[in-house]
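Regression test case RT-17, inverse folding.

Input:
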């Protein structure tokens, strides 16, 4: 009888672990070990910049809803002040760093922080992080973490994203 009880508890524990909200998902395209490095070497202390995060593709056979996106590793000298969901309207994904105010009128803003991606589809929406330069930058912004719901389960998945921001001469 105790073996049976043990077997049932193992099965129930496994079921709970696979549906928990901190589980690692695999439905989004991307890998934290493979990412492209982008950079901007003209930042100024006290100024803010929009940093684009990777565009997501749902590689699974089921639709999902992306609930949030964030940059996990923010080095000293930088602070994230906001996130937003945007699209350029043409389906192309600009990847890089843009001073706040320079491109704001051209982006199409998505209401809210969540959006749906159909199965086997590349989303035309992506997250941007508003970054404030607070001092000398000591490292790169790395690892983008997306939280999404698929069916009744919620997952976190890291996708590689590396952005190098450095102080330098301003671009006019």
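Golden output:
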């Amino acid at each position: 009888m105790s073996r049976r009880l043990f077997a049932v508890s193992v099965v129930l524990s496994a079921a709970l672990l696979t549906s928990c909200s901190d589980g690692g998902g695999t439905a989004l395209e991307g890998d934290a070990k493979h990412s492209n490095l982008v950079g901007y070497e003209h930042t100024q202390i006290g100024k803010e910049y929009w940093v684009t995060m990777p565009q997501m593709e749902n590689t699974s056979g089921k639709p999902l809803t992306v609930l949030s996106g964030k940059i996990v590793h923010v080095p000293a000298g930088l602070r994230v002040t906001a996130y937003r969901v945007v699209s350029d309207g043409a389906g192309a994904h600009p990847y890089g760093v843009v001073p706040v105010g320079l491109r704001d009128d051209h982006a199409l803003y998505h209401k809210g922080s969540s959006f749906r991606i159909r199965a086997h589809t590349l989303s035309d929406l992506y997250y941007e992080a508003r970054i404030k330069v607070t001092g000398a930058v000591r490292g790169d912004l790395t690892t983008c973490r997306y939280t999404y719901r698929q069916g009744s389960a919620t997952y976190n998945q890291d996708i590689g994203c590396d952005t190098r921001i450095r102080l330098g001469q301003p671009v006019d």
